[in-house]
Amino acid sequence: MERAVGGANVEEVTPEDWRLLRTLSYYRLLLVVGLAILCAKGYGPFMFERIDRIAFYRATLAYGIAALLLLPAVWYRKPGLVTQSLLHFFVDGAGICLLVYNAHGLASGLGVLLLTPAVGCSSVLGTRMALLLASIGTLFVFGEEIFRLSESDLPLSNMSGAGLLGLILFGTTIAASTVAQRARRSEALAAQVGSDFASLSQLNDRIIDNMGTGVLVVDADQRVRLLNAAAQRLLGTGPLAEGSSLVEQVPELAAALQNWQRHPGREAAPVALWSSTAEVAPRFMSLGGGPAAQVLILLDDAVRLREQAQQMKLAALGRLSASIAHEIRNPLSAIHHAGQLLAESPRQDPEERRLLDMIQRHTTRIDKIVSDVLNLSRREAATPSTITLRPFLERTVAIYREGHPKRACHIDLDGVAADLTVRFDPNHLQQILLNLWDNSFEHGAAGAGGREAVRITLSSGHQAALGHSFLDVADNGGGIAAEMRDRVFEPFFTTAHKGTGLGLYLAREMCEYNQARLLLLHSEPGVCFRLIFQEQGT
User: Fold this and answer.
1) Are the C-beta atoms of residues 437 and 473 closer than 8 Å to each other?
2) Which residues, 6 or more positions from 524, have their beta carbon under 8 angstroms from its beta carbon?
3) Continuous H helices in 77-221
4) What does pLDDT average to over the chain?
5) 521-530: b (≥16 Cβ within 10 Å) or e
6) pLDDT-based confidence at residue 119 (cuts at 50, 70, 90)
7) Cβ contact 529:472 at 8 Å
8) Per-residue pLDDT tens over the stretch 171-196
9) Among 280-289, 291-300, 368-377, which stretch is predicted with the lowest mean pLDDT?
10) Do the Cβ atoms of 291 and 299 come closer than 8 Å?
11) Do strands 410-415 and 455-463 pair parallel, antiparallel, or not at all (unpaired)?
């Protein structure tokens, strides 16, 4: 954008500046036409005390021709604003002083015509340029008076009028420039404030529209003034036109609003909506005072709120369970130790031996449950790393066999690719595999009736369409009954008397910590679990 230098500051040229210069050009033409008509009609002697009619008419025509020549430059805005302002004022100063000269001096009153172009040109320039214009105008006035005095024997007291007009020019141009600059600053500030307000308004609209909470604003007549996307989804009405009636669109919510207005301090109950077969929890807030105030209605999914409350209760219950488990562990260890000491006594009949075995068996089971609960409550965030799966599985199988020296651990790794790498927390992956293998060897043997040894087969693959790698853990046991397949990942669900029901639940939780999934696949015979790893690079 073109810029004009005004004083110490650099200001942008606005369309209003060009409009003012164009208006000054029209004014100049009207002035010339008016003076030419008056001169042609012979009214000059009546307006001015002394006038050279022919010379005045010629001066008027010359001034008019110069005014016409300036019009194209203003329309095309070439040259720049500063150059054109100086040129316009120079033409005005020369033309008006020529008219003053032919009307025999400042006594004709034509000198005041110089104030209008001085004010117009100073308004689009800075203070220094305005002072330059005043200086040029004063020089024109003094030059005209000096030239006229040199041609006739007139007293020097006539120069006082030129000096007074020069002072008026300086005062007028400075005042016009100062007022114009202040107006520009005010306009710029108003534009900045307007832009900031528009930006904040757009930001506010974006935030409201993307909120998960429904936002609805109604006026005193219960007509909709604002509705965001979440409110449309919860109410099931689609976009409501501004001014539509809440009573007609959502009568259940309108009734709840009327009830709140009658009892402002009472918390609104959840509202069941026929339009969306949903249930919303409204919150009402008055936007201002008086009966004409608008009302802000915040809408939340009542079902989701109840689920969140239930999750908070479960979290609190989990912390309580962990505390109880921690307190149980010490007396449980004492009972288990006492049972071991009693079992070492040589004087025991068969009934006492059976009871001691029962104590040992159930204390061991309770200790396993306590350990699983504590592990669940102390779960740390996953720290995944890149694992070459085949060597990792070989080390894990060796660790598992060392921990079960009396068990025939048949685990086949031939189906696992040698170069497959995955992203997973090594400790979590090892614990998941140990839990799955324990389930296969314990529950799989029970399901098979002990007729054949349980064998576990591990195989890997890659789902090209989804970009995920997976690991299948399958056994040849008796499998899981169809009616129980949907419950195997529930906490404390087990079909074995010795089980805790937390193994598969913990395995699935650790998979979620690592952005992976654990699925139970349909397979015959036996059971097959699929561990789907996160995509590499995510």
Assistant:
1) yes
2) 479
3) 81-102, 115-123, 127-151, 159-209
4) 79
5) eebeebbbbb
6) confident
7) yes
8) 888 888 888 888 888 888 888 888 88
9) 368-377
10) no
11) parallel
The neighbouring-strand residues paired with 412 are 457
Residue 161 clears pLDDT 60, i.e. is over it: yes
- Determine contact, residues 224/212, Cβ cutoff 8 Å: no
Count each helix (H run) and each strand (E run) in the chain, helices first: 15, 14
CB 154 within 8 A of CB 160: no
Q: Find tokens 């500030």 and name the residue.
A: 189
Domain 308-377, second-level architecture:
Orthogonal Bundle (1.10)
pLDDT band at 137 (very low <50, low <70, confident <90, very high): confident
Using an 8 Å Cβ cutoff, are 265 and 247 in contact?
Answer: no
Q: What is the DSSP letter of 181?
A: H
pLDDT at 331 over 60: yes
Q: Which CATH number does 385-532 carry? A: 3.30.565.10
Q: Virtual CA dihedral for 194, 195, 198, 199, nearest 10 degrees?
A: -150
- Segment (H or E) for 23: helix 15-40
Q: Do domains 214-305 and 385-532 have the same CATH topology?
A: no
CA distances from 321 to 132, 309, 369, 373 (A): 89, 18, 11, 7
Q: Report the candidate in 398, 332, 420 with the shortest Cα–Cα distance to residue 368.
A: 332
Residues in the chain: 538
Hey, what amino acid is at 118?
Answer: A
Domains of the chain, by residue range, sit at 3-193, 214-305, 308-377, 385-532
Q: Give the tokens for residue 163.
A: 């000096």
- The one-letter code for the residue type at 294 is Q
Residue ranges of alpha helices (H) inside 448-535 are: 503-513
Distance of alpha carbon 198 from alpha carbon 207, whole angstroms: 14
Instruction: Give the pLDDT confidence of 39-86 residue by residue, as tens digits.
Output: 777 666 656 666 777 777 788 888 888 888 888 888 888 888 888 888
* 391: preceding bond cis by omega (within 30 degrees): no
Structure tokens, 386: 């890149």
234 Cβ contact list (under 8 Å, min separation 6)? 214, 273, 276, 278, 280, 299, 300, 301
As a whole number of angstroms, the distance between CA 30 and CA 36 comes to: 10
Eight-state DSSP code of residue 81: H
DSSP string, 188-252: HHHHHHHHHHHHHHHHHHHHHHT-SSEEEEE-TT-BEEEE-HHHHHHHT--PPPTT-BHHHH-HH
Provide the phi-psi class of 153: left if phi over 0, else alpha when psi is between -120 and 50, else beta: beta
Q: Is the peptide bond before 72 cis (omega within 30 degrees of 0)?
A: no
- Specify whether domain 214-305 bears CATH 3.30.450.20: yes
CA 302/CA 256 separation, integer angstroms? 15
End-to-end CA distance of the chain: 47
Residues 6+ apart with CB under 8 A from 433: 393, 396, 400, 473
